[in-house]
Specification:
There is one protein chain. This protein has 91 residues and is mostly beta strands. The chain has a single domain, classed as Roll (SH3 type barrels). It has a seven-stranded mixed sheet. A hairpin with a 5-residue loop joins strand 1 and strand 2. The longest helix is centred in the C-terminal third of the chain and has 7 residues. It is globular, with a radius of gyration of 12 Å.
Length: 91
């Protein structure tokens, strides 16, 4: 199943693109950022973002610095919603 937001740009409130949606879990977007070979995957809680389907982007309400400090996810591994929620203080 392909998520409806897969491939959408992830954009800050300042209009800067910080990555793309690589996957989704029930409660988070998986954001892929960086350049090859240093691409990283990070979970962004859906409650800190809004989807603009017309512009095909996800607008984040947290700073790019905070997103960059969040724990990295492993490529191909299932997203552990409990683990990232704890880091974001949502548990």
């Amino acid at each position: 199943m392909v998520d409806k937001t897969h491939g959408y740009d992830v954009v800050t409130t300042e209009g800067k693109t910080v990555g793309q949606v690589a996957d989704e879990s029930e409660a988070a977007f998986v954001v892929e950022g960086g350049t090859w070979p240093r691409k990283t995957l990070r979970a962004l809680p859906k409650q800190f973002a809004s989807v603009d389907e017309e512009k095909r982007c996800v607008l984040i309400q947290v700073s790019r610095e905070l997103l960059a400090k969040s724990p990295k996810l492993k490529q191909g591994a299932p997203v552990d919603d409990d683990a990232w929620a704890s880091w974001w203080g949502l548990d």
